[in-house]
Amino acid sequence: MSDVAMQHPAATRRDFLFLVTGAAAAIGVGATAWPFIDQMEPSADTLAAGAPVDVDLTALAPGQMIRIRWRGAPIFIVSRPQKALDGLKDKAILVELRDPDSRVRQQPPYADNWSRSARPQVGVYVGICTHLGCIPQFLPEPNATTPVENWPGGFFCPCHGSKYDLAGRVYSGVPAPYNLPVPPYRFVNDTKLRIGENPEGVSFDMGSVVQM
Question: pTM of the full predicted structure?
Fold first, then answer.
């Protein structure tokens, strides 16, 4: 499972959906840091080798998201402001989640916490819906009507309506069974994130997660 494109039977379909839903996600999502994607897109050789990918977080402002590819999979990197972090602990929201305490193995040990991250301000997720592999949209702001009624803010899968909060935790009553996976990563320094490499002393790979 460490290489999504080679080992997942729906890889070809996901590549197509990545293009389709990625384009849809760019519409009406002003808070998403799409202008920074191209300059951080790794080379084809790097992707083919499955090597770690470095991401410069300097231009990532609170409330924004960067999307890159690692091992053929979209990786979401989100900067969460304090208001969003407070919302992750809201009891009214927690009761709506299927696995609020992340008991299902969908993350490394350093992200096995309330924020599902090594640092609460930065969330890192494999951007593949755990239902049928579509690419969720980043819609961080609550909305009364869009994309669904009483939208709480987070990630929305346009294919079948699955919802995730800004920690990648799936809501109850939607098709997706599990939280979004968290890939191995570490902070090289305060402004550089390395996807595909664990902190020193930690062993974790994507083969450990229950489902992509």
Answer: 0.79
